[in-house]
Write a structure and sequence with these properties.
mainly alpha, about 5% strand, elongated
Length: about 500
């Protein structure tokens, strides 16, 4: 982990970037040390204990869960109830969340509980922070949540591992959660009344995944803009399509920003070559309009995600100040579901745009003098070589899957749990879908970026080649360090995978 300033979990608003820094182990997580903050957390737990002393009726504390809320739990059984909650929810399936996603989930849950209205002890928050600090990662199956009452099944793996049950990933190995905690000198927690419910009855999985999806989408937007600028060079496009005066009369801010980035990349103020045509095809000419929709949507998506992140989203809410227990539905993940369903649509359009640019690059009818399929083979072996032909086929497949994946998850609400949970958000499915769409779109971006690099290289071999504008020259040089020109056919899987790794680590600095 770097020496970055810690992300402090307490009263302050956390950003998507804060969660990303914790998820990527670039900054440590720290719990607020202020005495007043800790007293507020403790006060909620004490108030809950006082209600138990008075035999108050509290959902999920002295009653069963969900539809079983009409079933009273005798006080002598209250201590056993939390363990039953995480036990019977131990039925998740599917792939396990990746480490970065698991850290994002832990961070999102910790932030929600620091509001002090969940009735948990300070010790629980300290143990969650300890899991992040020591990188003890519950093994969480990603499937099984309908997004209300929150992410019950996946979050049961957090509750269970805090209590010393089930498995964690620790120092690269799968180990029993209790064994790891005891090795660190910790006693696994015996969850108090309401603590298992407070951990599980919230939106931390969908919100953590949404933070990761947002960051990837933001970088993809910038990368797609840079790829477009490279393709303007490769295809000898008309730079006047990005004129500032043109965008002044349709002033969507994100659209104008994308056009400005392209102008910056193309050094529009410098002398340009004579124009070959008035209008390029839409995937070049309208790139700011396509990418601008994503750019303009990011602000709204951030608002939805960060409001959810910085909310208390479990049930019931324990108001120790007013000595009230408030029963509601804050576990409903509708805002995240909408944000992620929207992002799937936006990302599908980015993939489609880049796929269309790639189709122009490889087609000798439309690429304005480049070799068919961007092959760099000499005349003697040109008939044997097929350049980027198969890469374009692959990109078309990945694009089609991303577009298919844009169907909204949130409209597939199912009535579950004896019709208690009769309207649910599907927010976690939407978030997982969004990450899959991003994975596919990044694959299309990798293919189109390598093809653009090849196209720019081929254009540079021509007798009338002009120097590249400085921003694009730098990118071209950086890419050349990893990706040699394609002269004779070679299998490109390894290079595509390396390019994907570069994209996912945000390797290339793009726009400030």
């Amino acid at each position: 982990m770097s020496n970055a300033s810690p992300v402090v979990f307490g009263d302050r608003h956390l950003s998507i970037e804060d969660i990303l820094a914790v998820a990527e182990r670039r900054a440590p997580a720290r719990l607020e040390s202020d005495a007043a903050f800790r007293e507020r957390i403790a006060k909620g737990a004490r108030f809950l204990d006082s209600l138990l002393d008075r035999e108050g009726v509290i959902y999920g504390v002295t009653t069963g869960y969900g539809d079983s809320c009409v079933v009273a739990v005798p006080l002598q059984q209250v201590e056993a109830l939390p363990r039953h909650l995480f036990t019977f929810h131990g039925c998740g399936l599917g792939k396990l969340l990746e480490p970065a996603a698991t850290r994002a989930v832990l961070a999102a849950r910790l932030r929600s509980l620091t509001h002090g209205v969940s009735g948990v002890r300070v010790e629980l928050l300290e143990r969650l922070q300890g899991f992040l600090d020591h990188d003890i990662l519950p093994l969480i199956p990603e499937e099984g949540s309908v997004g209300a009452s929150g992410d019950l099944t996946p979050l049961s793996y957090v509750a269970a591992t805090l209590a010393g049950e089930r498995e964690v990933l620790y120092q690269g190995e799968r180990r029993q959660a209790g064994e790891v905690q005891r090795a660190l000198g910790w006693q696994p927690l015996t969850l108090r009344p309401k603590e298992a419910l407070a951990l599980m009855n919230g939106t931390a999985v969908m919100t953590g995944l949404a933070c990761l999806a947002y960051a990837r989408a933001d970088y993809l937007l910038q990368l797609a803009t840079r790829i477009t600028a490279l393709n303007v060079i490769a295809l000898e496009g008309n730079p006047e399509h990005f004129d500032e005066r043109l965008f002044a009369v349709k002033p969507h801010p994100g659209q104008s920003q994308v056009a400005a980035w392209i102008r910056q990349d193309l050094a529009i103020d410098a002398p340009t070559a004579p124009l070959h045509r008035l209008q390029d095809r839409y995937s070049i000419r309208c790139a700011p309009h396509v990418l601008g929709v994503l750019a303009d949507s990011l602000g709204l998506l951030r608002q939805f995600i960060e409001t959810e992140l910085n909310s208390a989203n479990d049930n019931p809410i324990i108001d120790a100040e007013q000595e009230r227990v408030l029963h509601g539905g804050h576990f409903y993940g509708g805002h995240i579901a909408f944000a992620m369903d929207s992002l799937k649509n936006l990302i599908g359009n980015v993939a489609d745009l880049l796929d269309r640019q790639l189709a122009l690059l490889v087609d000798a009818r439309y690429n304005h003098g480049l070799p068919s399929n961007l092959s760099g083979a000499p005349a003697a072996t040109a008939m044997l070589n097929h350049g980027f032909k198969a890469v374009q086929i692959g990109a078309s497949a990945w694009t089609a899957e991303a577009l298919k994946n844009s169907l909204p998850a949130s409209v597939f609400s199912r009535s579950t749990e004896c019709h208690n949970q009769d309207k649910v958000s599907m927010g976690t499915i939407a978030a997982r879908d969004a990450l899959r769409s991003l994975e596919l779109a990044e694959q299309v971006a990798a293919a189109t970026l390598l093809a653009a690099q090849q196209g720019v290289w081929l254009r540079g071999q021509q007798a009338d080649a002009r120097p590249l504008p400085q921003p694009l020259a730098r990118m071209h040089e950086q890419l050349a360090e990893d990706f040699a020109p394609l002269i004779e056919d070679r299998a490109l899987e390894g290079e595509l995978r390396l390019c994907l790794a570069r994209i996912r680590s945000r390797h290339w600095g793009l726009y400030a």
